[in-house]
C-alpha cells in the first residue's frame, strides 16, 4: 500500500521494533522510529510488561505509585 501511494519512506510512530524491520524488508525506508506514550495502570501493567519481555517493545514502564 505504501508503495502504491508513492511513499518510499516513513517516520514510524511505534514502540515495536519489529514493525520497522518488516517495513524495511518490504523496501520501505524508516527514517525515524518515534516511540509512543503509554497509559500505565494496575490493570494493564502485566500486559505491557509482556510486550516488553516477549516482543521487545520499547516501553518505559515506571513503577506504579499509590
UniProtKB/TrEMBL annotation:
The entry lists its GO molecular-function terms as: GTP cyclohydrolase II activity; metal ion binding
Q: Sorted alphabetically, which InterPro entries does this protein's record hold?
A: GTP_cyclohydro_II, RibA-like_sf
Which Pfam family, any one of them, does this sequence belong to?
Answer: GTP_cyclohydro2
According to the entry, every stretch annotated as the GTP cyclohydrolase II domain falls at 1-35
Supply the alphabetized keyword list.
Metal-binding, Riboflavin biosynthesis
| Associated pathway | Cofactor biosynthesis; riboflavin biosynthesis
Q: Which domain of life is it from?
A: Bacteria
User: Under which name does UniProt file this protein?
Assistant: GTP cyclohydrolase II domain-containing protein
Q: Which organism is it from?
A: Kitasatospora phosalacinea
Amino acid at each position: 500500500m505504501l508503495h502504491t501511494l508513492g511513499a518510499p519512506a516513513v517516520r514510524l510512530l511505534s514502540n515495536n521494533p519489529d514493525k520497522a524491520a518488516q517495513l524495511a524488508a518490504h523496501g520501505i525506508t524508516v527514517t525515524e522510529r518515534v516511540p509512543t506514550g503509554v497509559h500505565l495502570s494496575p490493570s494493564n501493567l502485566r500486559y505491557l510488561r509482556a510486550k516488553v519481555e516477549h516482543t521487545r517493545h520499547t516501553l518505559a514502564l515506571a513503577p506504579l505509585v499509590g
